[in-house]
Amino acid sequence: MVSNNLITLGIESSCDETGIGIYTSEGGLISHKLFSQVSLHAEYGGVVPELASRDHIQRAIPLIKEALNESGIKLNELTGIAYTAGPGLSGALLVGGSIAQSLAWGLSIPALGVHHMEGHLLAPLLEVERPEFPFVALLVSGGHTLLVDVPRIGEYKILGESLDDAVGEGFDKTAKILGLGYPGGPALANLAKQGDKNRFTFPRPMTDRPGLDFSFSGLKTYARNTFIDFPEEKANIAKAFEVAATETLTIKCNRALKQTGYKTLVVAGGVSANLSLRESLNEMTTKNNASVFYPALDFCTDNGAMIALAGHYRFLAGQSNQNYEITIKPRWSLEELLPVD
Question: Which positions in this protein are listed as binding substrate (predicted)?
Fold first, then answer.
């Protein structure tokens, strides 16, 4: 450890958000900035990788300057730079990695590529009320649906994952079927507020068999077929999909807590902002005398604060990339990570 007060800059650029965070040993998270590319990709109905990469190039440096100015930290006071090395879009990851390693080289400080999903998993640790280890983590986003056994930081065992579509992808695709535009997940959740949960009953996929894996592709197909038969009932279909998806996730989380014997559940990723999911999980954990923790809504979606935090823990453990190679891993399992001692 070079300094008693480590000051870590985090850079997130895995997909369509440019996120910057600054985390210190003494002050915790002291600044975070985010630029979302939603409006840029909306006309295409989804993320265009090349456009995402170009926009990260334009946004990252100005956001870093804003974060430094807001925090009162000078560039030469940084002690380490963390960036998202994967999983994610290759071009977008290369932008963040190039900026991080170039800055680190110029400042003669270490840089480190961190795992995007570890950032999400640790995001609840940014809150005042923090979960204690060990716990079960449910990571739910547009690209991932994972149940993870977390004994400590950096030690992760995947208990279950989606065999096809991630739950966030299921939300987005169902929203597209209903003609709700992009981004689809929040739009579907908003429309579902107007729906009658008793009008349609959708299946709860893979809950009638043992195990902790997921499947959401068939649920999306069920929604499409229902929409073909009842095109005037968009709100009720949105509600039925949301209820089925959240109940499926809740059933699997309940199983995971029983399987591990843990009494703490952490839920993170973009879908963790869904209020119906939170209500369902809150009810389940209360009934089972367990606790559930979420990130603040600002830190559910991709952000630089979680990358700064994940990098900070690894810098504290002495991990870094001293040769300034720009390393990315578009596909990267959590189970490949080293524990933080």
Answer: 139-143, 172, 185, 274
| E strand or H helix that includes residue 315 | helix 304-316
Which residue numbers belong to the known binding site? 116, 120, 139-143, 172, 185, 274, 302
Contact criterion met (CB below 8 Å) for 245 and 171: yes
Q: What is the CATH number of the domain that holds 172?
A: 3.30.420.40
What mean pLDDT, rounded, does the chain reach? 96
Q: Are 158 and 148 in contact (CB under 8 A)?
A: yes
Nearest to 119 by CA among 314, 257, 274, 250: 314
Convert 268-288 to b/e letters by CB count within 10 Å (16 or more is b): bbbbbbbebbeebbeebbeee
Query: Which segments are annotated as binding site for substrate?
Result: 139-143, 172, 185, 274
Does 1 map to a domain? no
2 in any annotated domain: no
- What letter would DSSP give residue 39? H
pTM for this structure? 0.95
Mean pLDDT, range 64-87, rounded to an integer: 98
> Which structural domain, as residue segments, surrounds residue 256?
132-294
* Average pLDDT estimate for 81-105: 98
Whether 80 is in a domain gets the answer yes
Determine the pLDDT at residue 300: 97
Whether residues 155 and 284 share a domain: the answer is yes
Whether residue 270 sits in one domain with residue 215: yes
Peptide bond into 203 cis (omega under 30): no
Encoded amino acid at 137, one letter:
A
Query: d(Cα 104, Cα 106) in Å, to the nearest integer?
Result: 5
Residue pLDDT, tens place only, 224-282: 999 999 999 999 999 999 999 999 999 999 999 999 999 999 999 999 999 999 999 99
Q: What is the pLDDT of residues 285-330, one digit of tens each?
A: 999 999 999 999 999 999 999 999 999 999 999 998 778 999 999 9
Asked whether 182 and 40 are in contact (CB, 8 A), the reply is no
